[in-house]
Every structure is written in C-alpha cells, then in structure tokens.
Amino acid sequence: MPKHHHGNHGEKAKNFKGTMKLLFHYLKPFYLSIFCVLLFAMASTVFSILGPKILGQATTTLAEGFIAKVQGAGQIDFAKIAQILLFLFMMYLISAFFSYLQSYIMATVSQKVSYNLRKESSLKINHLPLRYFDRYTHGEILSRVTNDIDTLSSSLNQSLTQIVTAATTLIGILIMMLSISWQMTLLALAILPISAISVFSIVKKSQQHFIRQQKYLGNVNGHIEEMYAGHTIVKAFNGEERSIEEFKKHNENLYRSAWIAQFLSGLMQPITVFIGNLGYVGVCILGGYYAISGQLSIGDIQAFIQYVRNFTQPINQTAQIANVLQQTAAAAERVFEFLNEPEESSEENAIALPQDIQGIVTFENVHFGYQSDKIIIHDFSMYIKAGQKVAIVGPTGAGKTTIVKLLMRFYDLNSGHIYIDGHDITTWKRHDLRNLFGMVLQDAWLFNGNIMENIRFGKLDATDEEVIHACDMAYVDHFIRTLDHGYQTEINEESNSISQGQKQLLTIARAFLSDPKILVLDEATSSVDTRTEVLIQKGMENLMKGRTSFIIAHRLSTIRDADCIIVMNQGDIVEVGTHEDLLQKHGFYYQLYNSQFEPEEA
Description:
- A hairpin with a 2-residue loop joins β11 and β12 (572-577).
- The radius of gyration is 37 Å and the shape is elongated.
- It has helices at 16-27, 31-70, 78-127, 130-135, 138-180, 182-190, 192-229, 231-236, 240-292, 298-339, 402-407, 430-435, 451-456, 464-473, 477-482, 500-514, 530-544, 556-561, 579-585, 588-596, 598-601, and strands at residues 361-368, 377-384, 389-393, 415-420, 423-424, 437-440, 449-450, 490-491, 518-522, 548-552, 564-569, 572-577.
- The protein is an alpha/beta fold.
- The strands form 3 sheets. The protein has a 6-stranded mixed β-sheet.
- The protein is built from 21 helices and 12 strands.
- Mean pLDDT is 84; it is low at 1-11.
- α6 (182-190) runs antiparallel to α9 (240-292).
C-alpha cells in the first residue's frame, strides 16, 4: 500500500482554542503546583519591580546631601544610603528565591506531563489498527512521540511562568510609573501601540514557518530512520547517491523553513528596542524639564527612566510567549491528533474462547478493501474442515497475506463474517483469537536475546523441557547443541553463526511451543541450503499434523497436497478449488501453474 503523508501541517494549530482546552485538561492533576508556581512568579516579580523606586531614594538622598555639602549646609547621609541599599539587597534576594522555587516546581510539572503523554503514546501505539501504520511513515510517528512531546514540555515550561511574569511586570511597572508622574507615563505609553503592532505582525508571519519546520523535521527523521534501518540495502544497490540527494532535498526544506522562522522571531528584538529608544528619548527630555523646575526629585526621574527601560521587556516577552504558545499548540495538536486516532474496535462485550477449538474455518460473504472505496475481495465464501490444508497461491504482490491478516483480525471486514468452529471471530478478544494461531513467516523474526528466550516467546510460561521438546519436534535441537553456548547462545543483528534457514527452524520451534490450533505458514525458502530446506519441510509437515493450515505456497508438492487452493491476483481471489479442478478450468491458475511450476517438476 502506498504510504502517503496525511494532513496538512502548513498552517498553525488548526484549532488553537480546542487544543489549549485539551492541554489544560492534561494539566488538571497539577493545578495546585501550577497555582504555587504562579504565586511565586508574581511574588518574585513584585519584589524586583520595587527595586528601582528604592534605588531612586538612595540617589535622591545622595544628590540632596551633595547639594547641601556644596552649599555648606550639611553632609551626605551615608548611613541612610547604606540602610536603603541593604534593604534593596534583601528585596532582590527574596525575589531570586521565589524565582528559583517557581522554576523548580514548573520543571517537575512539565516533565511529568511529558512522561504521561509518552506513556499514553506508548499504550496508544499498541491499540492502533494496522491501517494507521499503512498511512504514516515510521519517522512521522516517531516525530510525534519524541520531537512534538519535547517541544510541548519545554515550551510549557517557559510559557506558563512567562505569562504571569509578563503580566505582573506590566501592571506593576505601570502603577510605579503613575505614582511618579502621570504626564511622563502618558508619553511613554504613546510609543506602545507602534511597538505592539509591529511585533504581532512578525509573530503571525513566523508562526506558519515554525509549523512547517516541525513537519520537515518529521520528514528528515523519517528519511534518516529508513536509510539507517535499510543501510545494507542502500549500499548494495548503490543507493547512496539517491539517498543523499533525497536527504539534501528534505534538509533544504527544513533549512529554509527553520531559517525564515528563526530570522523572523529574531527580528522582534531589534524592532522593539528601536521603537523603545524613541520613547526613551522623549521621557529623558520631559524628565529633565521637571527636574529643573523642581517638580520631581532626581531619584524619581532615575527610577522612572529605569521603569521605561524595563517596560518594553514584558511586551517583547508577550510577543515571544505568543510565539511559544503557538508552537506549544501546534505540537500539542499533533500529539493529541495521534492520541485521538481511532483505535481498534472495543472488546468490552467479548466472550471467552471455548475450551476445545477444533479449527473449522468458515468465510461467509467476505468483502474487504484496505481503503473503503477500493474493495479487493468481493463476496468470498468458503468452508474449511478442521485439519485441512489450504494453499494460497498467486504472483508476487497478489495480496496473499490479506487472507491471513483478516483471519487474525489485523484488519476488520467491510462486510461478511469469518467463523472459527461456528463462532464469529469478532465476538472474541483479539488477544485470545491470535493465541489460536501459530505463524512461521518468510522473514524469520527474532529479537535480541538468547535462543531459549526467542523460542519461549511462543509461550511465555513454558518450562525449559517444553522448549527443548518443541525444538526436537522442529528438527533444530541437534543444531542448537552444536553451538558453543547451546540454548544460551545470544542472537543479535550480527549473528553470523546462524543462517537464514536455521532462523526459520527456530520460528517453527516457537510455533510448536505455542501449540496453535490454526497455522499460518509462508514457505518461501529460496535463500536456504538443501539440507536445511529438507529439515524445514519435515518440521513444517510435523507442525501441520492435525492442525488447520493456511500455507502461502511456493512449492509444487505443497500445492498438490492441499485440500483446497485459493488463487489470488491483484488483491482479489480469482479462483478456488483443488489442484485437479483448477487445472481443468484452464483459467488463471492453469497459466500460473504452467509458467511458474513446470521447471521445478522437471
């Protein structure tokens, strides 16, 4: 199935409000901590705002003492200045302490939120239908669970406290400025609208590029992940050039979107500083006039100028927060989109499996398509007795695994029913249903661990004796004992001591151990030496005794022995019958048989 990228990430969070609402729902368990954070942030800010005003008093005391000294009417009161400065130092210390506390709590909260989201994502992946993985690349899914959750937690950490600090600073400084001189305050405020308008127009522009950046990051990750995973194949087919070309393309997209996003967000600072400086000049001129006419003390003017200086900071911050919040919303939306993907249908009303399953399989008017508008199996019905062998044949890419995927409910039918022993398979839990099946597939899937652990994967509570018995039945016990560490031999990607055929035998042993009622075999053994192939055939024949088997058949002998053959082409079932019946029909099977199987017979 073609993998296509889903959704358009070219705009900002499609639903900012809804996403934020959801996010607050996630923060619910931490409301108390967040309340403390906000409280500490406010306290920290208030204490630091009082600073300039108190420093102004020290300056006034110094200036007045200096003038008195020059006029010979008194001295500079250093004791009073020292007292004021000590008080100031204490204020800043308290402010720093509160700031530390709020950072500490907030870091804990944001990490816990991302921990919970990752946990949910991990559970989610196990409940997603296979259709989801047909639709997205691994890199994209990875990007949601790693990058997007990272972005979410780090921006959450910043934005919450910044919002409070910015708001408190804005209100606090305004009050302090008004308490000094309302005329100067009005002059300082006149500059703000210009600053705000220019900043928000930049934020609006940069936002779409930030989202594009997240999307392209997913593409780059996906490409890298695929190239490293298929690293040998890329080398074998001299695909390095093409791979590098493609990477270059993804990388350039990422570079462009990231560059524009960073450049635009970098513009905010210089623009606001420039506009702020204009206001600053006006305030200095007016302040000078008030000082000469004696309407204001020098310390107050110094404090006021400092407040004007600090006043643009929260406005810059607000713009930056708006940016960060948009980033938060975009990342959160992608995470929530993932968490809200439709899961496999619920199993609440599932019934327990009967004890003695025989393995009678019935297909009744089965219709199925990987996409609802493209039905590939039309009205397929068939009755398979317990213990029968069903061969599934067809050219490469004919969709031979589709039947198996439907039997094991990796995909649900569009309409029709599949019964095992007369029970509709949708009435059982998927887990129970899949327990009935044993699989031996073409690519023998083994994980890092020793041979014993790999085989025990078929039945986790099996004893060592049972594992060894299963290996015996699969004709692999002898081979394992020839290895240096026997059953404790470690298997990993570099296991050179174990051939493809021997890995296949291990998966047959795993199937023996799980003692399934129904078997699914893919008997492609093209890459196996003759001796091992004989063993694989014997092992599989042994395994099939008394079990209903579905065999994706590549061998003539298997096809002839089958009780029934399903012939597939381009995803659809074109013919069904025994070997002799199908040959007499002179249909698709007849052509396939003559082109594919004749030479093998000779």
